[in-house]
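EI: anyone free to look at a 271-residue chain?
SC: sure, send it
EI:
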Amino acid sequence: SRDPKAGKIIRHTRVLVWEQIGDELAALLRELELIQTLRPKFNVLGVPGLQRHHYVCVGKSPAPHVYVTNKPTGKELGVYGPLVVRGKSEEAARRLNDWFKLRDCPQTVPLAFADQPELFGDERSAKCMRYELGSCLGPCAGACTRGEYAAGARAAKGFLDGRDRSLLATLKNLMAAAAERFEFEKATALRDRLQTLEWIDARLALLRQARTRNSFVYPLVGHDGRERWYLIHRGQVRAVCYTPATDAERAAAADLLAATFTGGAAPPVLV
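SC: here you go
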């Protein structure tokens, strides 16, 4: 009657280790820590292939653009995540690069801005069709200055930061206008673009809220009957202590609360 996968796991099992934890939340946190550290191949729910964490980034000089990566380097202009459903994130990155006319070509493609002095003024041509289609400023063809390109990169970062969401309103207006003119194919294309960008905007809004607002003390009674305080700051469990019962314990708890909840900027990446 055993599930086939369970039987396969048992056949591969050599050692079984029991680790006693104080309460259910601690057990869930410990399980998550072990999954992320050990990456067990049978734990599909913990590390599914299509939902492994990745990040949407703005960076890669000399012409920054939006891209998706599993491991940010720390040199990016902006890092947003962690996210799941990589296909949607990559589609959102493509849509943003198109809208703000940022390049998405390989790093091996040589770039030459219009204000970049050259000893020999060779004729430059675009390396792909995006420049001809109007969805890229053409830094490979010297069609824009560094300042013009940087303005597009800043605008893309502003959208991902949540500071400027006017792009969504613009797309809604364009979609409505196309529908009124009975240009239904154009309206459908705008709708698809809007849905992708609304998805990434909603996911990043949840992450921003977790980083900035989710700070509280979570009391929980364990299996041993003792109550513990989980100190959660900016969406992360920072510390845990037993509920204080004496003056000395209350003083120690007050020091721990002060150290946990005062100061410190929100982490750029929520792990």
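EI: The helical segments are 4-12, 24-38, 86-99, 130-133, 146-161, 166-180, 184-212, 247-261.
SC: 👍
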